[in-house]
Design goal:
mainly beta, Jelly Rolls, 7-stranded antiparallel β-sheet, globular
């Protein structure tokens, strides 16, 4: 089993998730100039989702820090406007297995990509909308995640990027995880779905 990318033995109903996503778009909408984001969790004092610290490489292949440190543990307030949606069920289920930080809906528009970078923590990804041209590259290996209710652990502490070479947006529910639950029964071998 690869340590960088693993599918969890947790499955959600994709129709219910997509309906909750539409509610989030209608009631909250995407914010952010560089990252299209809907914050599912926030801090007691702040509802906006700051871009957190990450590292990338400059043109001389020297690692540089970008953005500021974010106290992930402070993101424990679930968005009240989403309390009666399927997103709350997902949040509660994931919280039973992992200590979560920020939970966000992230949209990558068609024919775009993220910077090549690494984060301080790993992430869980649940695809909501995707297409065959949407890939995640982690540690120089490419993965495609179908929007079928599956949950994927991604070791984003390694260098990675996401690209959307398709004609439709790629939308994922992304949760920062603050602990490494390594229970083998929680994972399956990645099978390309």
């Amino acid at each position: 089993m690869a340590d960088t990318f693993r599918k969890l033995n947790i499955h959600f109903d994709i129709g219910s998730l997509q309906r909750a996503y539409r509610t989030a778009v209608e009631d909250i909408g995407f914010s952010g100039k560089l990252v299209n984001c809907i914050s599912v969790t926030h801090t007691e004092s702040e509802k906006k989702d700051p871009r957190g610290i990450f590292w990338t490489m400059d043109k001389n292949y020297q690692e540089i820090q970008v953005e500021r440190f974010v106290e992930e543990e402070a993101y424990k307030v679930f968005e009240p406007l989403l309390m009666n949606t399927y997103l709350k069920n997902i949040y509660d289920t994931l919280s039973n297995h992992f200590k979560l930080g920020r939970v966000r809906i992230l949209k990558l528009d068609s024919r775009t990509s993220l910077s090549y970078h690494r984060d301080p923590e790993a992430r869980l990804h649940i695809p909501i909308l995707t297409n065959p041209g949407a890939l995640m590259i982690v540690d120089k290996e490419a993965y495609h995640m179908k929007a079928n209710g599956g949950v994927y652990y991604v070791d984003t502490t390694k260098y990675h990027t996401a690209l959307n070479g398709g004609n439709e947006p790629r939308v994922h529910l992304v949760a920062t995880i603050l602990d490494e639950n390594k229970e083998e029964e929680l994972y399956t071998v990645y099978g390309g779905d």
